[in-house]
Every structure is written in structure tokens, then in C-alpha cells.
Specification:
- By secondary structure, the protein is mostly helical.
- It folds into two domains: 160 residues, no CATH class; 48 residues.
- It has eight helices and no strands.
- Helix 2 crosses helix 7.
- The longest helix has 45 residues.
- The termini are far apart.
- The N terminus is likely disordered.
Length: 218
């Protein structure tokens, strides 16, 4: 996601040092709308500048969370208003390929709000969450709640990584993440198996219920 180290992070420092919190807000909103702006890098840089004393943590977190919520909500209402046809027609301008759109639609239909929450942590997928959720007819309350929870979890995480880099902890973080990778893979595999088992059980129950409904009454 990021290359830890002070050589790469301060590249955007003039932007944040001059425009401060409004810059964070605008960049994160545009990133959530699918435009090619360094959303994650700006949040991490915000944390880096907090540790350095140039910005305040509450301001960075607040700007990031509000922007993440606003950007995805704009995407949701665009998808709800114009539907999937518009996403298929114009999505290529914001790197929404037919394959990605199909997979995102299937995830939204299958997992609902959980997919919206999880998409927040996947670069390239979070920009699809709002428009696809709107186009697939997800209830506004479900989307807004899942989107807000995702923003509240993701923004402090991204800012916290930048803050840790300010302490010179980048290589230590990479080492920890590298050692933890097998556990993350195993956890994902277990969750996937649980979801498959759940679907199989649901399918069998549905077939059994259909069979009982077709039996002639005695």
C-alpha cells in the first residue's frame, strides 16, 4: 500500500502544509469518487505530519472520516439515480472494468452492508462500493451505516500508519505484517469456507422447503 520511509511520504507535504485539512477533505472525496488522486498517501501523510507537530490528530481524523463518508455517499446516489447501465457505459473513465463491476455487484448482492464495510480497505474496490450499492438497490440506511462504520475504521488505520512512520517504525511495521501474513491468509480462507458452507446449508434448506411445498396435501 505504502512504501514506509520519510523519503516517499513528504512528497505531498507542501499541499497539506499549505491547505491543511481542506486538502485532506478534497483529496479523499475525489479518491472515493474514483479519480486518480493519492487518497491513501494523503491520509498517511496527514498522520506523518501529526507526529511531526504540523497538524493536529483530531482535525486529520475528522476531515478524513467526513470526506470518506461524503465521497461514497455521492457515489451511492449516482448509482441509485442512474443505475448499472450508466456504470457500464461511463465506468471506463474511472477505471471501472466490466469484470470488476460484475464482481462488485455479486459481492454487494450476496453480502450487503458487510461488502461495503470490507471494500473500504481494498484499494481499487472502495470506489465501486457506493455506485454499485446504489445501482443494486441496497437500502440507503444499510449503505450509510456500513459506509460510516468503514470510514471510522479505515481512516484512523491509514492515519495511524503515517503516524508510526513518523516514529521511524516503518520497517518494524513491515516486519510485523510480513510475519502475520500467513495468519491473515488462514483467516480469509476460514471465512471463505464458512460463507460457502452457509450458502450450501441455505441452498439445501431452500430445496427441502420447496420439496415439502410441492407434496400433495393428505
Amino acid at each position: 500500500m505504502w512504501h514506509f520511509g520519510t523519503n516517499t511520504m513528504p512528497d505531498l507535504s507542501p499541499l497539506l502544509e499549505h491547505w491543511r485539512y481542506p486538502a485532506i477533505f478534497v483529496v479523499v472525496v475525489l479518491g472515493n469518487l474514483g479519480l486518480p488522486v493519492p487518497e491513501e498517501s494523503v491520509l498517511a501523510l496527514g498522520g506523518f505530519l501529526v507526529q511531526r507537530g504540523d497538524l493536529r490528530l483530531p482535525g486529520v481524523i475528522t476531515a478524513g472520516v467526513l470526506a470518506a463518508i461524503a465521497g461514497d455517499n455521492l457515489g451511492y446516489w449516482v448509482g441509485r439515480r442512474y443505475g448499472r447501465d450508466a456504470l457500464e457505459r461511463y465506468g471506463r473513465y474511472v477505471w471501472i472494468t466490466p469484470d470488476r463491476l460484475e464482481r462488485a455487484s455479486a459481492a454487494m448482492t450476496r453480502h450487503g452492508g458487510l461488502a461495503v464495510f470490507a471494500a473500504r480497505f481494498v484499494p481499487g474496490v472502495r470506489t465501486l462500493a457506493g455506485p454499485v450499492a446504489g445501482a443494486t438497490g441496497m437500502r440507503p440506511v444499510t449503505f450509510m451505516l456500513s459506509n460510516a462504520l468503514g470510514a471510522l475504521a479505515y481512516v484512523p488505520y491509514a492515519v495511524g500508519l503515517g503516524y508510526a512512520v513518523g516514529y521511524g517504525a516503518g520497517h518494524a511495521i513491515e516486519g510485523v505484517l510480513g510475519r502475520a501474513e500467513p495468519y491473515f491468509v488462514a483467516a480469509i480462507a476460514l471465512v471463505t469456507l464458512a460463507l460457502i458452507a452457509r450458502r450450501l446449508i441455505h441452498h439445501r434448506r431452500s430445496r427441502a422447503a420447496s420439496a415439502r411445498a410441492r407434496r400433495p396435501a393428505r
